[in-house]
Amino acid sequence: xxxxxxxxxxxxxxxxxxxxxxxxxxxxxxxxxxxxxxxxxxxxxxxxxxxxxxxxxxxxxxxxxxxxxxxxxxxxxxxxxxxxxxxxxxxxxxxxxxxxxxxxxxxxxxxxxxxxxxxxxxxxxxxxxxxxxxxxxxxxxxxxxxxxxxxxxxxxxxxxxxxxxxxxxxxxxxxxxxxxxxxxxxxxxxxxxxxxxxxxxxxxxxxxxxxxxxxxxxxxxxxxxxxxxxxxxxxxxxxxxxxxxxxxxxxxxxxxxxxxxxxxxxxxxxxxxxxxxxxxxxxxxxxxxxxxxxxxxxxxxxxxxxxxxxxxxxxxxxxxxxxxxxxxxxxxxxxxxxxxxxxxxxxxxxxxxxxxxxxxxxxxxxxxxxxxxxxxxxx
Length: 379
Ligand code: ADP
Prior knowledge:
The protein has 379 residues and is an alpha/beta fold. It has 2 domains: 2-126, ATPase, nucleotide binding domain (Nucleotidyltransferase, domain 5, 2-Layer Sandwich); 177-362, Nucleotidyltransferase, domain 5, CATH 3.30.420. Helices cover 42% and strands 17% of the residues. It has helices at 44-61, 86-94, 103-116, 136-139, 145-151, 160-174, 227-234, 239-248, 251-256, 261-269, 273-296, 307-312, 314-322, 333-337, 362-376, and strands at residues 2-8, 13-19, 24-31, 66-71, 82-83, 122-126, 183-188, 192-198, 201-205, 302-306, 344-345, 355-357. Strands 3-2-1-4-6-5 form a 6-stranded mixed beta sheet, with helices on both faces. The longest helix is centred in the last third of the chain and has 24 residues, at 273-296. The structure holds adenosine-5'-diphosphate. Residues 189-191, 218, 260-262, 307-309, 312-313 line the site of adenosine-5'-diphosphate. Homodimer. It holds the Pfam family Acetate_kinase.
């Protein structure tokens, strides 16, 4: 099958055409500056026209069979990928308040495809779906129930497509059936999240009501005392200013003056104290969470690193592993330094828990999920 994978943001649209039989990427691209007025496409419909033009050659040979959309928020309703129809699109739209930057853009992407290729089946793949198995004691905040009932304030978790994909590949690499696999999976990109996987299912994850909670990220603070927000508001900061502060001007960028892990590691190695402290804060918090999730899953059979930093930064992986000695974890420093696109074990033979690097591929996961949904629908 030939699947167009769409990742639609508020001002950008990433796409890939994939052959699900050969797992080959046949085309990909990025349309930027949508709706910004300076010569970019007017709206998501115009962006889809550009995609269609860019794909003309590819599609002349063989048309598309389906479209798979990355949708950020599936709320409490969506626990797996679904075939899109008008009702589903409206349901995604009703979740807009929970993901104001993302879901509206995802809906625009869906509607643009519907307008352009009405006959093409579309599938929504949700970033939150894998975490629908969180038990109540993990998803509930200790605040009045009325806030959950009125606004849906609870933990949802994100990066689910990646965590699920990586969990499956890690189990495969270790020869353990995924339904019997306990692991702690660290997705370390610009966004960072950790998932506790028990018997193949997500039972806890570090991102919560929004992707701001949890670990230190590129530009996001992760956990902090909620009173800080109230304090800053009383100092005269507006809600928008606080939102920007915590989502765009915090994390590694605030600590090290940079959110590129390569630059931070280089700076720390040449004696930059701020960079070294940024690495210490980030690796310390992550190690603390890994220890907690090892307990949560009843003993992990693997610790898994993925995404930009997890797959590529041997220095950062080493810093985290150095803090996990109490769990009997040690890396094979040569194996850790190997650069590869393959899933691999990087722990020492006598490490109490194997440590893995498993490259994530959200587009491949979305294409696979789309294929599965389409095949299950009687036509
Ligand atoms: P996104 O969440 O935007 O998809 P990525 O998964 O691409 O992000 O991860 C981005 C992060 O990965 C950045 O901090 C970047 O510095 C880091 N990164 C990418 N390549 C390397 C590398 N070779 N060595 C160290 N860090 C890397």
